[in-house]
Design goal:
Elements lengths: L3 H12 L6 H5 L6 H16 L3 H24 L5 H14 L2 H4 L7 H15 L16 H14 L7 H17 L3 H21 L4 H22 L9 H14 L2
Helix pairs in contact: 3-4, 8-10, 9-10, 11-12
């Protein structure tokens, strides 16, 4: 009896065959690359809402992207789904020697340190611990990744006060910037410093900003709902008063 994953792989193979679906057959890695990101974000939304039925569905959509890309690669003679599964399984075993071998570790910090060392062993062409960071992820997520990797190598503030002083310094440099290019650069330094503040406090900066975005949307919609005249006709004081009301009604 075929497993569900075998049935899924067979379905995709049929869809990509001559007698399958014209749309599926025409797709390439590049034509559907945005779908991978979109489905991953939808899975994250399901996790954030703690909706397990929705999460099951969205994980299936993420899996579909893996299966589709694997079939496209198979059709082109590069690799198939089994190769993908084999590669990640071998990687997991190699990067967990404290589970599958006799390596001894004392804590999670040592596990993460070993993980980075093993990654470098697997990819000898990478000369820096910062090599290999995805260029396609959001700048905020990329900043978090860079910060965490640098800290694992030992590049860290001694205390929170030093970090807070660094942030103050970056704001001061922004205030004294003269050209638009200088302002842009200094503003980027502020954001990067704030990402480190989030990491120091065990806050996911991407998630925190998403929460702030949703909170603003909720309050702005409330302002649209309770205003007695068009928003574009409000004075600054009226905007301020409306915002205060919206905040109270969306707590």
């Amino acid at each position: 009896m075929k497993s569900n994953i075998e049935k899924l792989l067979e379905t995709m193979k049929i869809l990509r065959s001559e007698n399958g679906c014209k749309w599926d057959r025409e797709q390439t890695h590049k034509s559907v690359r945005e779908n991978m990101l979109e489905e991953a974000y939808e899975a994250i939304d399901a996790i954030n809402s703690n909706d397990m039925a929705h999460l099951k569905e969205e994980l299936g959509d993420v899996l579909l992207q893996v299966v589709l890309h694997s079939q496209i690669a198979d059709d082109e003679g590069f690799f198939n789904f089994d190769d993908v599964a084999k590669t990640i399984n071998e990687k997991l075993i190699h990067r967990h020697p404290h589970v599958f071998s006799d390596t001894k570790v004392e804590n999670v910090k040592e596990i993460l340190s070993n993980w980075e060392k093993l990654k470098l062993e697997e990819k000898p062409h990478r000369k820096s611990i910062l090599d290999g960071i995805s260029k396609s992820q959001s700048a905020l997520m990329k900043a978090q990744k860079i910060s965490k990797k640098a800290v694992r190598a030992g590049f860290e503030w001694q205390n929170i006060e030093q970090l807070q002083e660094c942030i103050k310094s970056e704001f001061q440099e922004f205030k004294t910037a003269k050209t638009q290019e200088e302002k842009e650069e200094e503003f980027g330094d502020i954001l990067f410093a704030l990402v480190n503040l989030a990491r120091w406090n065990k806050i996911d900066a991407e998630q925190a900003l998403n929460i702030a975005n949703e909170k603003f949307i909720k309050r702005f919609k409330k302002m649209e709902e309770i205003t007695r005249k068009p928003l574009e006709n409000l004075t600054f004081d009226e905007w301020e008063n409306l915002w205060v009301q919206a905040k109270k009604q969306t707590l």
